[in-house]
Write a structure and sequence with these properties.
Length: 148
């Protein structure tokens, strides 16, 4: 489970990127983007909301009971059992102008894919960036490239 930020933000940054005239986005700017994106995803998930700000679908009764027996909270859905999934969320720089948000562990990537795409968990889509995130990324790029 991964996504590339260039695909997510390309429409919003079209005018900014056109001003680059073929220049590459510096690595430090891309590191700043990756750090922001991963932090946004982790913070929202810990608060129990998807990337669009909607509350996650509540835990089912059987799963909530299983969590309770393990001493884990059952009220707010935060997709956290061991912390391994969110711990594996990271980013890499790819090519000259791309940031790849992904999971460093295949087992955690499969878990994340289930949360994002299982029909019965449709309200647990935590992997993504919203318009506010894209606006912040745009600011990072503009600042990093000294574009007004």
């Amino acid at each position: 489970m991964n996504f590339k930020i260039d695909a997510v933000i390309s429409a919003a940054l079209k005018s900014t990127l056109q001003k680059l005239s073929g220049n590459l986005i510096p690595d430090q700017v891309r590191h700043d983007i990756g750090t922001l994106a991963v932090a946004k995803i982790k913070l929202r998930t810990a608060r129990g909301v998807d990337f669009m700000g909607n509350a996650f679908k509540p835990y089912g009764a059987k799963y909530a009971e299983k969590r309770k027996k393990k001493g884990l909270p059952t009220g707010k859905v935060d997709l956290n059992w061991t912390g391994n999934m969110m711990g594996a969320l990271t980013y890499n720089l790819e090519g000259p102008d791309t940031v790849l948000i992904h999971f460093s562990d295949m087992m955690q990537a499969k878990k994340a894919h289930g949360h994002n795409f299982r029909p019965d968990l449709k309200n647990r889509r935590f992997m993504g960036l919203n318009n506010g995130d894209v606006g912040q990324i745009n600011k990072i790029i503009r600042k990093g490239l000294n574009i007004q």
